[in-house]
Amino acid sequence: MEVQFVTSIAPIVRDAEASRSFYSDALGLGFEGQEGDYVFTHELEGIKHFGLWPLSRSGECLLRNH
Predict the structure, then answer these.
(1) Residue 58 contacts residue 50 (beta carbons within 8 Å)
(2) How does pLDDT run across 7-38, given as a tens digit for each residue?
């Protein structure tokens, strides 16, 4: 089996601004999109979508799916 790409990764983060700074400054990742305090990119090689999901919004996906 050869993996071609990962569809989506969005770690749940406790502090959205500190996490964005860490991923941007320390790891060099850029985020080209933002919806409120959720930031994301589609520009990472091998990953279709990478975002930082704030802990305060983590229950939203559960509510939408039920």
Answers:
(1) no
(2) 999 999 999 999 999 999 999 999 999 999 99
